């Protein structure tokens, strides 16, 4: 940190700028009086004429020559000049002692020696500062940073530069021995020689700057003998003088005293032998201290080098301090008085002989005590023409700123100017052509009779009031009554400026107005202070620069001193500025200090003028001049008397002002004359002072121009004093004085009375105006009185003055206020209140209305609207108090209605109410809070606050005006939204996590959701997911730990459900493994059973064939109201493969599945039996072959045919030929009947074993198990038949007889047709056009048991050797199998008449067991209260076959299927039509009709245990048996 430099200049505020219209511009004095109330507050103002007003420049440029003033900028500023004067004194002090002052540098800045000296003096002096170690404090005060040892540097600089000067200023006299002895204790500073005394030696750090005084010797007339600047030459001269003196003839010493004094202190004379060369003394530094033995040693040291000199005239010179003449080489001779001193006897001591002229302390005191001459500007040595000065000015500015003059910003010039005037480091000198008399060279404005020829269109400017040649002497100006021409005051002055040329702080003579017009050129910058701040400005300048005012009390009247406006403003002085451009006027008002500078080359003109309002200030100014002993430009008393002598022609306003001024003047004059009369002055004499020049009638004491009276004395002819200074004339007795007077008092009173009579009518009017204007309270008059006074002034043509303007202004204000008040009361505004809008253009604020009401009551007149408006204001204030109370409370959702009512009330007032926007904001906040509360209400929003609602509320809340209530709610909503969004995002991430998260993680997340009052969809979905996962795990646990083997469908469903649940489920992997194992097993089973490209599924292959033929009758059950309540289980239909698969999947255990498959097997056998019978019937030889539809192509039989051994249908060999099926040893099956590859039993058993290891139930597995059981059961029965066949064959072989036809029948009553007995494929050749390529098992004479056994064997999807054996046995015609008659009696038909009757078939024991097991299950279900499955009672196969055989024909087959609706009607004669959730039926085993059990009286147990035959069938069968 370095020492603080001057702060950058801050421009003061701008002064008012007026732009008059042509009407206003016509009368300059009227316009100035109009703007005076505004402009006098700033002291200066600027006036821009109308753009068309452009007077010609009439100055004679060729004749205009002037000598400018020289201005050194840093000498203009008061504080800077004080510093420069101080440095000049320091430089003079050291220069008189032969030293050059060099200003040291500290922290790379020039040290402010003045500030340092002042601070040390304020702290008590050098000794106290050193003793109390205050140097660091001083360094910090000067702006240096602490901690850098700056204090020690400051001490060293002070001690070597300033301390000797302060010792000199303290009055230390070396001739006083006691004081000398005391001061001798100070040792010479160690660096003094280097810093001050060696001109050829540079400063220590190479940065100290040599100080050059500002023409110090010339300005203060200090004449010092010039010294030789060359030290070696001066030394050589002294050596020569010494040689001449020593070598003089006859041993006489040189009687040239000057040479002897020159020799003293430099060389010592001694006798030299002839031919010897003088030896130059070697100069050695000697440390000088108090007179002690060390000093003697020093002297003896010098004596060793030089023998004692012979006695000469030189020995007569002794040191005036110590009185000794020894150490002549250290003896100094004063260049002023020739006194001699030892260098070590001086205070402070010198270590060497000074190189320049040296003055002793006595001469130094004489030189430095000379008073300084008054500071003033010097005149330049060159005379300029306007063009030459302009060239110089433009060159200076362009060179200084290094840019064209017109491109330099005014702000830059302003800042640079104030920087330059405040620095001592830079000396910038400019010239200013100021105070050039226009009378000599012509004004810039055209004048009548001037040398400038005015063009016709410019003649209007000759008599224009703004022409400065006319303005000062116009009638409204008081200066017209001053008889003499005053250059610069009544005659304009010209000013030619250049960049930085300035005019210093001053006020105009006699505190008059001034007006300045800039004809052309660059701007002029002005600074002004109002007249009321004049004394404050003077006090501040005297405080900051007291040294200047001590020597020049009237410094501010010399126009040579400025001070930075920022400094004045910092001390409370109001300062204003403006930039005056070409063609603009600047007006200064009475006693307004102003200053400024020029931005560049320009030409201006100025003049003074005085108006009526100036009269009191003019007399005050004369009194002020008397105190300052300053001369007056003109006599104020003389001007007043001149106006009084012309009372009849005076303006009434001016007459009134003159009357008041004369009253003061006569009273003062009477008092002064009475005073001097009492002092003893008896002689009086009339004296016409107006005949004398002003400088010949000045008071010798105060320099006031005398006019009314003065005192003279014969001892001092031509000298007079004013009556205020009667004692300052001379020492003669006062009785010798003579009172010279211009008028007697008796002469003055008539003059004043004449003026009074002229002003009487105006005064009477003015008194009435003053009375009504100053009326108070109830004494105020109506506005009509003011209008009448204005009318009176117009009638009597009173001139424009302050009182009239004030009356007019008050009347206009009253009328305006009355109109506005009436509009406020009526509410007739141009811009009405708008909801949501701010203050309209014409609306008043409450404060403005309050101020307006106060203005109404403060008006000098009374208005009828004032009380009414006051009442309205009270209502508004009550409204504001209510609003303030409401607004101070917390915002509540319950305050909506109250706020709305207040808004409605406030809208009635035609005033801008700031509470209304706040109320609207409050209302929005309350509505928002109500919306939040409604959204959070559980009753109206049971789901909770959703995220969208929260965001919408927050978005609405963001636009609200901040309030603690809304902020808290916003913070809560924002926090809730943040938490909810985090929970939602976390829940969503958990739901979408791959791999899924564990159930514990999800549950832990759900615990965080608890208590959050918000509707969170993802969290709810997460909750549902957790619930589903728990339910799934429970079901999985039940499946794993249950007694029953789980179904594949359940496991697959569990797997599918688990895949839909985004939770990590541990049993899922095991279930998936089971499913994959089952799928592998199914694939293996499929490869084992299915034929390539088979249309059947594995389940269709493994299950019994339920879809053998569409012509088989539908066995059905009926439950009344199939669409029963969902809580009760429906009976299962087995009408399709999907029904079978669903029944198997729904079965609880394998037993139920086996039961279902057994039921399907029965249906398979019944359907296949019917199909075989139908196919056999249509292939009878009697049938029309052309109408038959056989084979897969559904065409008539023709050519080589193949007959399926299972369905007994015929097929064209060309349609179904396949090498794989053409085997003579096996039964041929059609494509519909050959459903699988029929793997061997051992392979199937391995499949079943592998399935059992999987421990999963599936329909295919149950079907496979049932197929194996069926296969094993069939294999056992087939083995019995085969074994029986072998026994029969053996018995036949023993008897030696072949089987007969009776062996092919089941009884002797069974008769066959002859054509039927033969093989149709052989015997029917002559009747048909087709034949069979492969033999089939003949059905004639084949027992039903063997047929059923063979059919069932062919239905099995297993390859068994028993199947081939039985096939071959039956193909070759097996013998009759003896079976007990009682076993088959109930199953044989009794019809012996019809040869076409279908052969009967006995019911096997397995079928009966299956039937009875079904009936028992039905009974158990009914007893347990569970809906039973539909049950059908079966009749014997024998009887059913008989009925079918009886009805078989081509047409019967097509019509054998009854509709389900017909079969659901109970055929009982008296049907009871039972009702209920389920109705139980029973089927007749003879006619296959269904009956209600209730209608036929059959119980469920009976139906399950025994066969049922209806009444009709019993009757029919009984008749047949008969």
The helical percent reads 40-55%
The count of β-strands is 34
| Gross geometry | elongated
Number of helices: 56
Low-confidence parts, pLDDT < 50 over ≥5 residues? 1-5, 173-206, 216-309, 828-837, 1110-1131, 1294-1328, 1377-1410, 1417-1463
Q: In terms of structural class, how would the helical and strand content be classed?
A: alpha+beta
| Largest sheet: number of strands, sense, barrel closure | 9 strands, mixed
Strand order of the largest sheet: 1-2-19-16-21-14-13-4-11
Describe the structure.
The structure is a single chain. With 1522 residues, the chain is an alpha+beta fold. Helix content is 46%, strand content 8%. It has a nine-stranded mixed sheet. Strands 15-20-17-18 form a four-stranded antiparallel sheet, with no helix packed on it. Strand 6 (105-106) and strand 7 (109-110) form a beta hairpin. The termini are far apart. Mean pLDDT is 75; it is low at 1-5, 173-206, 216-309, 828-837, 1110-1131, 1294-1328, 1377-1410 and 1417-1463.
């Amino acid at each position: 940190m370095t020492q603080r430099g001057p702060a950058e200049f801050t421009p003061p505020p701008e002064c008012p700028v007026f732009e008059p219209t042509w009407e206003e511009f016509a009368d300059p004095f009227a316009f100035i009086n109009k703007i005076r109330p505004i402009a006098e507050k700033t002291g200066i103002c600027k006036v821009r004429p109308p753009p068309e007003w452009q007077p010609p420049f009439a100055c004679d440029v060729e004749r205009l020559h002037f000598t400018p003033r020289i201005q050194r900028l840093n000498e203009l500023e008061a504080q800077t000049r004080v510093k420069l004067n101080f440095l000049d004194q320091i430089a003079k002090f050291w220069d008189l002692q032969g030293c050059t002052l060099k200003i040291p540098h500290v922290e790379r800045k020039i040290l402010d020696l003045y500030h340092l000296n002042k601070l040390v003096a304020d702290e008590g002096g050098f000794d106290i500062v050193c003793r109390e170690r205050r140097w660091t404090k001083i360094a910090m005060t000067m702006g240096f940073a602490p901690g850098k040892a700056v204090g020690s540097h400051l001490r060293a600089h002070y001690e070597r530069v300033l301390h000797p000067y302060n010792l000199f200023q303290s009055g230390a006299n070396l001739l006083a021995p006691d004081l000398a002895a005391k001061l001798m204790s100070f040792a010479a500073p160690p660096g003094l020689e280097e810093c001050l005394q060696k001109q050829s030696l540079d400063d220590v750090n190479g940065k100290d700057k040599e100080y050059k005084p500002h023409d110090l010797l010339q300005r203060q007339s200090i004449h010092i003998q010039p010294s030789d600047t060359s030290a070696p030459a001066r030394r050589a001269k002294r050596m020569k003088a010494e040689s001449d003196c020593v070598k003089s003839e006859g041993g006489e010493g040189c009687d040239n005293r000057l040479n002897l004094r020159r020799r003293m202190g430099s060389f010592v004379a001694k006798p030299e032998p002839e031919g010897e060369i003088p030896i130059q003394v070697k100069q050695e530094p000697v440390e000088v201290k108090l007179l002690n033995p060390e000093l003697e040693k020093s002297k003896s040291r010098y004596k060793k080098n030089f023998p004692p000199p012979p006695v000469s005239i030189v020995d007569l010179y002794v040191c005036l301090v110590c009185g000794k003449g020894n150490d002549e080489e250290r003896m100094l001779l004063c260049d002023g008085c020739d006194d001699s001193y030892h260098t070590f006897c001086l205070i402070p001591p010198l270590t060497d002989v000074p190189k320049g002229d040296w003055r002793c302390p006595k001469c130094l005191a004489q030189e430095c005590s000379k008073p300084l001459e008054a500071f003033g500007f010097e005149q330049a040595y060159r005379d300029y023409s306007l063009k030459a000065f302009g060239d110089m000015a433009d060159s200076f500015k362009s060179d200084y700123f290094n840019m064209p003059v017109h491109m330099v910003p005014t702000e830059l010039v302003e800042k640079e100017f104030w920087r330059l005037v405040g620095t001592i480091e830079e000396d910038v000198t400019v010239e200013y052509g100021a105070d050039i008399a226009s009378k000599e060279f012509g004004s810039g404005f055209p004048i009548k009779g001037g040398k400038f020829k005015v063009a016709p269109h410019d003649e209007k400017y000759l008599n224009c009031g703004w022409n400065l040649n006319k303005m000062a002497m116009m009638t409204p100006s008081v200066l017209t009554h001053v008889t003499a021409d005053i250059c610069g005051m009544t005659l304009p002055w010209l000013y030619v400026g250049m960049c930085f040329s300035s005019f210093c702080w001053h006020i105009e003579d006699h505190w008059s107005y001034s007006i300045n017009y800039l004809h052309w050129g660059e701007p002029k910058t002005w600074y002004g202070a109002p007249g009321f701040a004049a004394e404050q400005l003077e006090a501040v300048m005297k405080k900051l620069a007291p040294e200047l005012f001590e020597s020049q009390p009237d410094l501010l009247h010399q126009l040579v001193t400025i001070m930075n406006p920022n400094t004045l403003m910092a001390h409370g002085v109001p300062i204003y500025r403006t930039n005056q451009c070409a063609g603009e006027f600047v007006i200064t008002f009475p006693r307004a200090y102003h200053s400024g500078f020029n931005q560049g080359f320009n030409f201006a003109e100025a003049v003074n003028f005085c108006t009526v309002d100036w009269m009191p200030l003019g007399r005050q100014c004369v009194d002020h001049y008397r105190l300052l002993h300053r001369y007056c430009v003109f006599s104020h008393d003389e001007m007043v008397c001149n106006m009084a002598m012309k009372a009849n022609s005076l303006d009434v306003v001016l007459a009134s002002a003159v009357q008041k001024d004369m009253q003061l003047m006569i009273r003062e004059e009477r008092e002064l004359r009475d005073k001097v009369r009492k002092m003893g002055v008896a002689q009086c004499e009339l004296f016409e002072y107006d005949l004398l020049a002003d400088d010949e009638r000045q008071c010798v004491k105060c320099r006031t121009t005398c006019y009314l009276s003065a005192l003279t004395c014969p001892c001092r002819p031509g000298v007079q004093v004013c009556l205020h200074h009667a004692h300052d004339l001379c020492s003669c007795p006062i009785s010798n004085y003579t009172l010279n007077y211009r008028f007697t008092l008796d002469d003055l009173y008539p003059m004043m009375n004449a003026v009074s009579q002229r002003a009487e009518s105006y005064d009477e009017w003015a008194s009435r105006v003053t009375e009504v204007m100053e009326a108070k309270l109830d004494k105020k008059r109506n506005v009509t009185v003011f209008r009448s006074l204005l009318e009176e002034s117009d009638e009597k043509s009173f001139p424009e003055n302050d009182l009239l303007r004030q009356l007019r202004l008050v009347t206009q204000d009253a009328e305006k206020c009355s109109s506005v008040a009436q509009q406020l009361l009526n509410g007739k505004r141009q811009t009405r209140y708008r909801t949501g809008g701010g203050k309209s253009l014409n609306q008043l604020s409450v404060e403005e209305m309050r101020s307006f009401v106060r203005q109404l009551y403060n008006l000098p007149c009374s208005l009828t609207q004032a009380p009414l408006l006051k009442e309205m204001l009270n209502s508004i204030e009550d409204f504001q108090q209510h609003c303030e109370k409401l607004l101070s409370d917390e915002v509540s959702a319950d305050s909506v209605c109250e706020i709305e009512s207040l808004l409605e009330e406030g809208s009635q007032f035609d005033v801008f109410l700031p509470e209304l926007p706040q109320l609207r904001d409050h209302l929005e906040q309350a509505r928002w809070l109500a919306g939040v509360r409604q959204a959070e209400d559980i009753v109206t929003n049971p789901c909770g606050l959703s995220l969208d609602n929260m965001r919408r509320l927050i978005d609405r809340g963001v636009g609200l005006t901040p309030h603690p209530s809304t902020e808290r709610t916003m913070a809560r909503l924002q926090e809730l939204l943040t938490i909810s969004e985090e929970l939602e995002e976390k829940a969503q991430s958990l739901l979408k996590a791959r791999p899924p998260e564990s159930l514990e993680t999800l549950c832990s997340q759900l615990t965080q959701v608890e208590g959050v009052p918000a509707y969170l969809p993802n969290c709810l979905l997460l909750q549902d997911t957790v619930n589903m996962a728990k339910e799934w795990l429970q079901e999985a646990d039940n499946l794993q730990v249950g007694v029953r083997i789980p179904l594949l469908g359940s496991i697959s469903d569990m797997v599918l459900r688990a895949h839909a649940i985004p939770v990590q489920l541990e049993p899922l992997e095991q279930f998936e493994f089971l499913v994959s194992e089952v799928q592998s097993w199914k694939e293996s089973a499929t490869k084992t059973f299915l034929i390539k490209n088979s249309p059947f599924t594995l389940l269709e292959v493994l299950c019994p064939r339920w879809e053998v033929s569409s012509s088989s009758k539908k066995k059905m059950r009926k439950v009344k109201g199939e669409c029963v309540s969902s809580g009760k289980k429906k009976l299962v239909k087995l009408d399709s493969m999907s029904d079978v698969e669903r029944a198997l999947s729904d079965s609880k255990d394998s037993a139920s599945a086996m039961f279902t498959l057994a039921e399907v097997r029965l249906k398979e056998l019944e359907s296949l039996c019917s199909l075989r019978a139908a196919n056999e019937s249509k292939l009878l030889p009697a049938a029309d072959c052309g109408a038959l539809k056989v084979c897969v192509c559904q065409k008539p039989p023709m050519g080589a045919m193949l007959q399926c051994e299972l369905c007994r249908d015929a097929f064209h060999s060309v349609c179904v030929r396949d090498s794989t099926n053409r085997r003579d040893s096996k039964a041929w099956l059609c494509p519909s009947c050959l459903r699988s590859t029929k793997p061997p039993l051992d392979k199937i058993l391995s499949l079943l074993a592998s399935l059992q290891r999987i421990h999963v139930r599936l329909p295919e597995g149950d079907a496979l198990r049932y197929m194996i059981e069926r296969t094993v059961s069939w294999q056992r029965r087939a083995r019995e038949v085969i074994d029986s066949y072998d026994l029969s064959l053996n018995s036949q072989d023993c008897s030696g007889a072949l089987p007969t036809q009776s062996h092919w029948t089941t009884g002797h009553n069974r008769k066959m047709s002859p054509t039927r007995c033969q093989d149709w494929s052989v015997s029917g050749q002559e009747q048909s056009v087709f034949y069979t390529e492969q033999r089939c098992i003949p059905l004639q004479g084949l027992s039903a048991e063997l047929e059923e056994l063979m059919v069932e064997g062919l239905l099995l999807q297993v390859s068994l050797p028993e199947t081939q054996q039985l096939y071959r046995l039956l193909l070759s015609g097996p013998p009759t199998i003896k079976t007990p008659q009682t076993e088959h009696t109930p199953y044989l038909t009794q019809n012996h008449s019809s040869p076409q009757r279908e052969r009967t078939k006995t019911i096997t024991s397995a079928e009966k067991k299956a039937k009875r097991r079904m009936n028992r299950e039905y009974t158990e279900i009914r007893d347990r209260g569970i809906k039973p499955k539909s049950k059908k009672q079966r009749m014997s196969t024998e009887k059913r076959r008989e009925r079918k055989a009886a009805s078989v024909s081509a047409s019967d087959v097509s019509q054998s299927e009854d509709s389900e609706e017909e079969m659901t009607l109970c055929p009982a004669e008296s049907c009871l039509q039972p009702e209920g959730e389920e109705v139980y039926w029973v089927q007749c085993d003879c006619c296959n009709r269904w009956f209600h059990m209730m209608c036929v009286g059959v119980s469920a147990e009976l139906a399950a245990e025994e066969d049922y035959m209806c009444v009709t069938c019993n009757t029919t069968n009984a008749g047949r048996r008969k």
